[in-house]
Specification:
- With 242 residues, the chain is of the alpha/beta class.
- It has one domain: Rossmann fold (3-Layer(aba) Sandwich), CATH 3.40.50.
- Helix content is 38%, strand content 22%.
- It has 10 helices and 7 strands.
- It has a 7-stranded mixed sheet.
- The N and C termini lie far apart (39 Å).
């Protein structure tokens, strides 16, 4: 539904955003500047390893903004964006045309690629929506080459954290690093204009706008308050396949 609502050339990112203290001051092209804070989440996630010359898969690529940015700035040999949503994939194919960048419709829990196809797999703020997260993790391990990296950023609410941690403990990869980034995501939410983009496209119906406000995560929203009071945990990970 969200992709159908927001499939416009100016809506390229669907994540909450990210900002550090002091600010990252990431150099960006003028065309990327409006999406600074969602881009910074992608940048921080992807630069946990060197992607130059690598074959990269992003699972749940959304509207492809992160795929385009990383292809243009981190110089992988190839970058494949996969998403379940056919509308979103059609949008990506029309909007993001770069050598080495391609988009595929498919399921995160049954990746349509041979074993050992990629040097890195990226997943940003998406696996919370999957039906079977351990199955997704197993698929990541399957398609990674030995020495490859799984670069992962995601959120869980308080009542989901124990199950998430159990899933993470069972992932068939070696943990290199992991940390909570609640404060960084909250700063991103404060500066990100995602909520305004949603509101401009909604009918003037109070309950719809209320739902959108909580989804988009602006200050005062449910997700912002949960992050602020420790009722949600947003974390960043790097795993490796030996």
């Amino acid at each position: 539904m969200l992709s159908r609502l927001l499939t416009r050339d100016d809506v390229l990112f669907l994540n909450y955003g990210y900002e550090e203290d002091p600010p990252m001051a990431l150099p960006l092209a003028a065309s990327d500047e409006p999406d600074r804070f969602p881009i910074q989440l992608y940048h921080r996630t992807a630069t946990q390893t060197d992607l130059a010359g690598k074959q990269v898969l992003e699972v749940s690529c959304g509207h492809g903004g992160g795929a385009s940015y990383l292809m243009r700035t981190l110089y992988p040999a190839s970058y494949t964006g996969l998403d379940l949503n056919t509308v979103g994939i059609e949008f990506c194919r029309k909007r993001h045309k770069l050598p080495g960048l391609n988009f595929v419709q498919g399921n995160a829990e049954s990746l349509p690629f041979p074993d050992r196809s990629f040097d890195a797999v990226i997943n940003v703020e998406a696996a919370i929506n999957y039906q079977n997260v351990p199955r997704f993790f197993a698929e990541v391990e399957r398609v990674l080459r030995p020495g490859g990296d799984f670069l992962y950023a995601d959120i869980r609410y308080a009542d989901q954290i124990a199950a998430w941690e159990a899933d993470l403990a069972g992932i068939p990869l070696r943990l290199i690093s992991g940390k909570a980034i609640n404060a960084d995501v909250m700063r991103g939410l404060e500066k990100n204009r995602f909520f305004d983009q949603i509101i401009r496209r909604l009918p003037n119906i109070a309950f719809l706008r209320g739902i959108a406000h909580d989804y988009a995560g602006g200050p005062g929203s449910l997700i912002y308050r949960r992050l602020e009071y420790g009722e949600a945990s947003y974390r960043l990970f790097r795993f490796a396949k030996d």
